[in-house]
Amino acid sequence: MGKGFATKKSTSTKKKFLNSPKEPKGRLISWSPWPSADFQTKYPAFPFVLTILIIIVLQWYFSLLR
């Protein structure tokens, strides 16, 4: 009587792909380890957030100069 484990080993004719063919491979900048090629799809708001942070830091810096 089986205890929940398969007794026969089935072989699949389909190969399993670890990486989806739709995902880009490699890097945005070939010599740089960062960012990965899918960075823009993972973090689409990154340029906007970075721009806001730069503006805030510059406003703080200029307020200290006065």
Q: What report would you give on this structure?
A:
The chain is an all-alpha fold. It has helices spanning 39-42, 46-65. It has a domain at 42-66. The protein is 36% helix and 0% strand.
Overview features:
elongated; 0% strand; mainly alpha; single chain; 66 residues
- The helix content is 25-40%
Give a short account of the largest sheet: none
**Total count of helical runs of at least 4 residues:** 2
| CA-based shape | elongated
Structural class: mainly alpha
Sequence of secondary-structure elements: HH
Mean pLDDT: 75
- Regions with little confidence, pLDDT below 50 for 5+ residues: none
The radius of gyration is: 25 Å
State the distance separating the first and last CA atoms: 84 Å
Number of strands: 0
**Percent of residues in beta strands?**
under 5%
Write the layout of secondary structure elements.
Blueprint: H1 39-42, H2 46-65
What is this entry, summarized?
With 66 residues, the protein is mostly helical.
